[in-house]
Amino acid sequence: MNFPDGYYYAHLPTLDLTTHGFGIEGAKQAALDLIKLWIDEKKNQ
């Protein structure tokens, strides 16, 4: 998959999840948001 210039992937290998965001900081924030969502989902199962 190709993103416009400035977008970066963030891969979380332990959880086997991948996300993306604009710039490195955007990708890091997207990864943190994804981790929080993953934790919330596991708590509610």
Indicate the topology.
Elements: E1 7-12, E2 17-22, H1 23-43
Antiparallel strand pairs: 1-2
SSE class: alpha+beta
Instruction: Please give the radius of gyration in angstroms.
Output: 12 Å
Going across the biggest sheet, name each strand in turn.
1-2
Low-confidence stretches: none
The H/E string reads EEH
Record keyword descriptors for this entry:
two-stranded antiparallel sheet; elongated; 1 helix; 45 residues; single chain
Describe the overall structure.
With 45 residues, the chain is an alpha+beta fold. It is built from one helix and two strands, in the order ββα. The protein has one helix at 23-43, and strands spanning 7-12, 17-22. The protein has a two-stranded antiparallel ribbon with strand order 1-2. A hairpin with a 4-residue loop joins strand 1 and strand 2 (17-22). The longest helix has 21 residues, at 23-43. The protein is elongated, with a radius of gyration of 12 Å.
Describe what is shown at a glance.
With 45 residues, the protein is of the alpha+beta class.
